[in-house]
């Protein structure tokens, strides 16, 4: 009998369920099975079959939407209200995969424009790249798996699914749901290796064509450095997201957005609002208002409809965040609210005004419910301060001035800039990419599917007549 891994609630510590753990033999068997699937081209999943399988999966998820949301909330700590949104997004993500593979199947390559290409026609069609290994994170335990695994199914790739151990139930539930929808079990395999070394063995196997990773930069870049020659990858890490507010901004809208974008899922979001640069004339007033708003947030059981901020995923994270906050305050930052460890692995929503530029809350991803507000006199200097880190992901600006919006858009290091919205805004059809140490490649359903496929070209010399 396989070893089993228990998953526990981060809020009250109760066991929520178990999933099987893979040893060396199980990992090798999974890789062998996936390799056989890909090598047998006559057995590839046809486009119409992939569409039908994903349509059925979306139907099953819709029927079980509340159950999936509650499970994700219970094991990941994201409040149920937000986990319901995650479940809805996951269902829509599957539908988006269907739209992509139905409408994006290749290109016509221009021929006949030169004498050498006269009498020829050329086009491309998409084919699966090969085995996908998907290693996922805990913070969106259902939607992230959909991003990595539904895209692989849509692309026609055999996929090995390794969820975060803390939230493995949602990952297993989605794999089981795909099998129920008709995806052959050998084409989508749940594999939770018994240790990190075995995960590395799975990821770096030379038969793996694409490695999809969502998680810490330290682990992601390390695994990328060990990939077999020819293995492609997509890495999604975190940022230290900057948001700028000018004096002419709609401050009520900015306040609501920063509060949501900073404290959503207790700040455990890779593009969570962390550094807020506010024009000095309104900076302290805005910071105090943000603190007032943060104090009103209801912290507690993620399974409750009343909770707005749930627990951190592990107690060690609570302690780390508290250490960073204390350091910032001891070195001159003004603690406006929060800064307290609570029971059940929770931490009070925290606002720090003008923490030191070299404090860890200013230079590294907090991944917790902490928002820092900095007063600025010169926008260019504020942008320079935001750009001083090796991380760059999404950024935002609140202003009524088109020139200021353009100044931030052109000046800040980011793959996306939101105007009059928070940094964590995302819909799943848009490109989602970390720059610098924040990631590699482009996420988002259409872009992930494209990465998992090749465009195979056919060139036909029509000058040659049947002989």
Please explain how this structure is put together:
By secondary structure, the protein is α/β, with parallel strands linked by helices. It folds into two domains: 4-237 and 438-458, Aldehyde Dehydrogenase, Chain A, domain 1; 241-419, Aldehyde Dehydrogenase, Chain A, domain 2. Helix content is 40%, strand content 21%. The chain is built from 15 helices and 20 strands. The protein has helices spanning 24-39, 47-63, 65-76, 80-103, 143-155, 168-181, 196-203, 217-225, 251-263, 280-296, 315-330, 360-363, 379-386, 402-411, 445-451, and strands spanning 4-8, 15-20, 108-109, 120-128, 131-135, 159-162, 188-190, 208-214, 232-236, 241-245, 273-279, 334-337, 350-353, 370-376, 391-392, 394-398, 416-419, 435-436, 439-440, 453-461. Strands 12-13-14-11-10-16-17 form a seven-stranded mixed β-sheet, sandwiched between helices. Strand 13, helix 12 and strand 14 form a beta-alpha-beta unit. Helix 4 packs parallel to helix 5, helix 5 (143-155) packs across helix 15 (445-451) and helix 9 (251-263) crosses helix 10 (280-296). The protein is globular and about 85 Å long. The mean pLDDT is 97.
**How much β-strand is present in the residues?**
15-25%
Poorly predicted tracts of residues: none
**DSSP summary: helix tally:** 15
The outline comes out as globular
Strand order, sheet with most strands: 12-13-14-11-10-16-17
Computed over alpha carbons, the radius of gyration is 24 Å
Q: Give average pLDDT, whole number.
A: 97
CATH class category of the largest domain: Alpha Beta
Tell me about the biggest sheet? 7 strands, mixed
Q: Provide the number of structural domains.
A: 2
Q: How does the helix and strand content classify structurally?
A: alpha/beta
